[in-house]
Amino acid sequence: MIMNKIKSAFVSNDPKNIGYVYSNGRREIIEDLTNSHNEIISEKNFDEKLDVLSEIEVIFSTWGMPCFSENQLNAMPNLKAVFYAAGATDNFVRPLLARGITVCSAWRENAIPVAEFTVSQIILACKGYFQNVISYRRAVKIQDFSNLYVGQGIYNTKIILLGDGAIAHRVMEMLQNCYKLDVTMVASREQVRKISFDQAFKEGYVISNHLPNREDNQKVFNEELFRSMPYGATFINTGRGAQVDEEAIVKVLSERKDLVALLDVTEPEPVEINSPLLTCPNILITSHIAGSLNNEVVRMADSAIEEFKRYASGEKCQHTVSEDILITSVK
């Protein structure tokens, strides 16, 4: 078969990620479909593999994909496509695109577990679950259950999604398909927003951050925004820790016991042992578990395999990367 003639290689500067993502037989599937080199190539052994690299047509990769230099790309004259079983490609993709090399990313698949994680937190937040847990523990100590916090409920509650990328769209789709909620998506770029962050924080009972990792989004969530949140509101961050002014959120939530912050990302990550974030019982931190992990990562490998099959059959790939979809694009 034609596919068996295509020469391929697995590439990652963190070789264990290849075994992790292309697990459950996925690496073996690729080895059956292609003439695959048996060693994982990284920047460390790149120069030792020049004879192999000079012939390969496609690369399969995941987290740890290197950003090739011009000399390295020159050493791969037959490279036509890269199948990336992970999400964002900004760190390595531009030199490839400049040479007309097709890059396919599993960014849509990588968005699924983040969206699922976020939706679960939004639903619990609407019920007031997190505040209720905190107030219930307090009530048990004093044996007074008259002031337990309960939420607005999962009906017509105002939900704000900050950002308009794949994750935010998936969250909105899941919420609209399953629940009767008032969901507003706020565009990532200020010039096209229909509502401001100021308005979003004042109106949202649940505010979920999905902004892209760009320099202009550093510490955009400040004291003024947190202080303006409605009574009993919840802030969810599965974006980037650096987008939150952590000093400000600690200050506000130390004073506003009615608010809750659910942080799956922090800056730095993990938090330092003396981080003030750990001092607030209404700031709940998880260890960056929203994204693809364990069983979920195989979905990204499946995406890479399906894209390769389209490529090898001469069909149009469905998840190609272009400059205008990069999170660091100026467009």
Short description:
By secondary structure, the protein is of the alpha/beta class. The protein contains twelve helices and eleven strands.
Structural overview:
This protein has 331 residues and is of the alpha/beta class. The protein folds into two domains: 2-109 and 294-325, 3-Layer(aba) Sandwich (Rossmann fold), CATH 3.40.50; 111-285, 3-Layer(aba) Sandwich (Rossmann fold), CATH 3.40.50.720. Helices cover 34% and strands 13% of the residues. It has helices at 16-21, 26-33, 50-53, 70-74, 93-98, 107-126, 129-142, 166-178, 197-203, 223-227, 246-255, 297-312; strands at residues 7-11, 35-36, 58-61, 81-84, 102-105, 158-162, 182-186, 206-209, 234-237, 260-263, 283-285. Helix 4 links the parallel strand 3 and strand 4 (81-84). Helix 6 packs across helix 8. The protein is elongated. The protein starts with 6 loop residues before the first strand and ends in a 19-residue tail after the last helix. The mean pLDDT is 95.
